[in-house]
Amino acid sequence: MNRRLTLSLILVAALSACGRQPESTDPVVRGERDFRGLGCAKCHMIGDTGNEWGPNLTLIGFRKSSDWLDTWLKNPHAWNMRTVMPNFNLNDATRTDLVAFLSAQKGQAWSTYPWRTPEAMAMTPVKRGEFIFNKAGCVACHGQFGGGGYPNNNVAGGLIPSLTKVSEGYSKAELHTKIQNGAFSLLNDPKGEKPKIFMPKWGDQLKQDEIDALVEYLFTLMPHAAAGSKAAKDDF
Predict the structure, then answer these.
(1) In DSSP terms, which residues pair with 224 in a beta bridge?
(2) Domains of the chain (ranges plus CATH)?
(3) pLDDT given at position 70
């Protein structure tokens, strides 16, 4: 057997061995692989990787339920007909793995939360609050500048509330408490399915001064600020 043939056989054997590597039994690992393979990072950021054309997903597992994630990935346009996110027509196994990966994203991909850097700490409370609103993903539910308009099931009007008039309905202390403790929307139909989207207990992620900054920002929002603005974010 000549040297060239021997090397060829060794290469074939090596490639065959690689092909026989068992697939991970961890759905989070498989979901991360699919997240990268599908090019999700072209629009979304997790930690310091990706782009923020769409919502930042570093806290997606904290602010969205696995039930909603599964519904969304099954057919984004069925949930929100105006979404710009494509339907990837995922098979059940891939979708399940992606849900597992996204549900696991609860901030650990950040070595330091972006609003705790020296630069962010030097911002005015209103600017820092706006920064938190966008980076933490509040924008993905309440819309750019708090304008609202994103769907939810079995709630009044079928929409997540706008935040442009919170200063008329809450004191700053009341709004702080609501953000800290989270909230469930009132059911449109008491016998119907529970809303898939609800506000989580942000006190589990944000410090008191960070919630204060968020409140200061929300109190600056007015209907005219959202009127006519084109939302650059999706509702993922």
Answers:
(1) none
(2) 24-103 (1.10.760.10), 114-226 (1.10.760.10)
(3) 98
